[in-house]
Amino acid sequence: MNKKTIFIILCFLAFSSAYSQFKNNDKPINKSTNNLILGIFNPKNFTMSQSFQVSMLSSKYGNVSLTSYVNSMNYKFSEKISVSADVKLQYSPYSSSVFGNQYSKNLQNDLSGLFLSRLSLDYKLSENSFIKFEYRNLNDGSYYNGMYNPMFYNGEFSR
Question: What is the number of domains present in the chain?
Answer without folding.
Answer: 1
